[in-house]
Amino acid sequence: MRKWISRRQPARNVAHGLEREHDVLADLDREIACAAASLRARHAQLRLPDALVIATAIERSADELLTTDCMWPTARALELDITITQV
Description:
With 87 residues, the protein is an alpha+beta fold. The chain is built from 3 helices and 2 strands. Helix 2 (30-42) packs across helix 3 (48-59).
């Protein structure tokens, strides 16, 4: 069973969720910023916060990115090798 952090969960659940082994907090660095800018240049409809999240997953070599945002484009639409799963 997959668990994820939802915007609707209370803060205590979010804090607990960040303690799991497979969750990673990543600092925003130059590589992530450049990858996000590249995504936005190719996909004007992509909002900056979303581009930063996707770029972080790409730069950190994630296999899958979970989102609760049903407005996100698919990985195919973004021409990405990563799997974006809308939960």
